[in-house]
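Whiteboard transcription, Tuesday session. T.W. wrote the structure tokens on the left side:
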């Protein structure tokens, strides 16, 4: 899930994904250079299925998604 300055909706979006009934779920949120770090915005959510990857510079949605694909551990994306 790419994210750029999405602190207003990020927690609700992540909670929605984590509430799904899919058994083997991996959610990777790519912080694409947000002014308020995504890790800070999501600090209250504790779930081993959630990982945050931080990019220091905004590279655009395609680069953010590609970063998530490279980071994914699941056999199916």
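and on the right, the sequence the group agreed on:
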């Amino acid at each position: 899930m790419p994210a750029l300055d999405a602190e207003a909706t990020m927690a609700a979006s992540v909670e929605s994904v984590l509430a799904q009934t899919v058994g083997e779920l991996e959610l990777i949120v790519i912080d694409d250079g947000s002014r308020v770090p995504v890790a800070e915005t999501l600090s209250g959510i504790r779930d081993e299925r959630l990982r945050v990857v931080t990019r220091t510079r905004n590279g655009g949605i395609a680069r953010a998604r590609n970063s998530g694909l490279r980071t994914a551990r699941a056999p199916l994306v």
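Someone added at the bottom: The first helix runs from residue 10 to 18.
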